[in-house]
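call fold(seq) -> tokens
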Amino acid sequence: MAETKGRKTAGRGRMEMRKGPPAREPQVPLPPYFNISPDAALAELEAPLTTAGFAEIARSCAQGREDLAARGLDAEGRRSLRLFSTWEITRYLIPVATAHFRRVLKANPDLPQGISETEGGAKWFTLDEVLRLRAHFAAEGSKAKEYRPYRPAGLPAKLVAVANFKGGVGKTSTAAHLAMSAALDGYRVLVIDLDSQGSMTSIFGGRVADEWGTVFPLLARHYAAHLQAENRVRVARGDPPVPMDETLTEAQKIRAGDLIAKTHWPNIDLIGAQLNLYWAEFQIPVWRMQGRSWKLWDALTDVLAEDGVLDRYDVIFLDTPPALGYLTINGLAAADILLVPLGASFLEFDSTGRFFDMLHSTFRSIEEGENIAARALGREELAFEWDAVRAVLTRYDGAQQAEMAALMQAYMGRTMAPERQDFTALIGQAGEQVNGIYEADYRDFNRDTYIRGRETFDATYAAFKRLLLGIWRREELAAADAAE
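ret:
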């Protein structure tokens, strides 16, 4: 019995050991929004901001913008385009073997010979020199090779609007890189910045003092011409004319050529923008109320044609504001090709769908309003038309967004370009240096990184160029048929 008790006692001892104090669970830190002291939060808070505070923030940002933009300036405070090496020229710009390229230079000492940073080192050329070399190869080289890009004679420049009312989709960077691609390909390019934020203007080193250096006076001139025509009708029927204010009078003196500025790219010109351009969004509806028959959507197209701009360039890129206002409507109505950048996410897909819905509502409303009068007067009805419309995927990450991109492609079909603009290390590093990727010196990167980074933008440009050439060819054939 005692033995049994002993075993029981031992058993109880073992049970007591198992019933010891429970092990402590590790402390999990609370989320950062718990236990915030109101007094500590008050101590961190600055004084309330007044209207003057916005000016101070703007001044700080302006100083930062100037400092960052200065990274791309030369010793004389001007932006300059980098040089291009023999390797880069023969790989990307002029389709000849490197050895043949060198033989041609040696046989033609009057051609640009480039410069070497070291004795016997690689030769480097300005883009101006590359364009001269391309012209030589086009005149003297094989006719089977594309030394100069296809451009039918007698047809006007093609206008390309890059638009979306959702910000942050890569709209301006897409427009800028396509403009640079086209310039490297040999086209004469004009960039028109319709966005009062002026990001495109900054990319190309433009400086615009006020709204009189933007497209604003061109739109004002178009309205002034309309008002004068209306006043002639009023006077003919015995009514007093509507007076023209000083803005309209001054705008009549300005031509597009007065606004076009050279950039650091020899074959890219710019009509820039700055904050005061936003005033157009308030002024245009005033003119529209005063002259209801004024076709404001034709303003940009008409003045560019009247001033001969469409004959001076091959491609004109229009960077629009991230809103469907009057400036955007002018850009979209003027465009032959509409590109809509967006990311591969539900929110951007949803927003872009609404953007297309708003485009439909806006332009259908204009057509219906105009065509009531057109039918009554027996005139041709208004119908807007675009040669091509494409959605372009930007900032694409194949590892994370492939499924979403495939779904978007399935829903949008041919409207979405199958080429996807990857976000690579080259793009990020070039952006930090306030450069487009084509302005970046490949020696600042691993060469494979540079090649991969270029590939995604080269593919985007190739898709755009197929659209451009197809449209020009269609028009060229139509013109030939009409002439028979």
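The two ends are 127 Å apart (CA to CA).
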